[in-house]
Write a structure and sequence with these properties.
Elements (H helix, E strand, L loop, with lengths): L1 H9 L9 E2 H8 L3 H11 L11 E2 L1 H13 L12 H47 L5 E2 H8 L3 H10 L3 E3 L2 E2 L1 H5 L3 E10 L2 E10 L1 H11 L1
Antiparallel strand pairs: 1-2, 3-7, 4-5, 6-7
């Protein structure tokens, strides 16, 4: 390390070489200016001049960084002590804020797109929930854009209907269907016709599981 420092001290500085102030180096390394000044005074006292701003080049910064790593117990937490440090921290905070705003805008855009995609379903649910009108299986099939036979088969396969006139009891209890009996006569004989009707709640349910 000493040999490295001696070689560096004997090296002539390049006037065009990029340099940084103590405050800038402290910000880059995430330490206080006092920590950087400590190592500058120890290893590079010749560059410290009263009344002049101390300038550090890349070699200075590399050595200081190495010293900070070798002294993990040294207190070097970032502290805002000067106007420059405050300005740099504000700029960093603003950058983080803009990143957060951009992310929120992207999430909002996705939410709006989802609302637009779900609009037909939402309109369907709103319409049927506002009415107690009953519709037949045939009419329900028309709403879905399919025939009643296909809808009947779908309801059989999903264990919702026992047959063409009888839903399973749990779906009747849930309020998805009601059955209506109608008596009629034919050739002197009385008959009872039982039909299934889909409630508004049932229309929403079938639309959901079909969809």
């Amino acid at each position: 390390m000493d040999n490295e420092l001696n070689l560096f001290k004997n090296d002539e500085s390049n006037e065009n070489e990029k340099t940084f102030t103590v405050k800038e180096v402290a910000y880059f390394l995430g330490v206080t200016s006092r920590v950087v000044q400590k190592w500058v005074k120890k290893y590079f006292p010749e560059i410290v001049q009263n009344g002049k701003t101390t300038k550090l080049n890349e070699k200075h910064i590399t050595i200081i960084k190495q010293e900070i790593k070798r002294n993990p117990n040294l207190e070097h937490a970032f502290e805002v002590t000067t106007d420059l440090e405050k300005t740099l921290q504000i700029m960093k905070g603003y950058e983080l804020l803009m990143q957060k705003v951009k992310k929120q805008e992207q999430e909002l855009k996705k939410s709006r797109q989802k609302i637009e995609n779900d609009k037909p379903k939402v309109e369907f649910y709103d319409n049927v929930s506002e009415t107690e009108n009953l519709i037949s299986i045939q009419q329900m099939g028309q709403l879905l854009g399919i025939g009643q036979n296909r809808l009947f088969n779908f309801l059989y396969e999903n264990k919702i209907l026992i047959n063409r006139s009888t839903p399973y009891q749990k779906y009747l209890n849930a309020g998805y269907f009601v059955t209506r009996e109608k008596s009629y006569e034919r050739n002197g004989h009385k008959f009872i016709d039982v039909r299934i009707w889909v409630t508004g709640k049932g229309q929403q349910y079938i639309q959901k599981i079909w969809g």
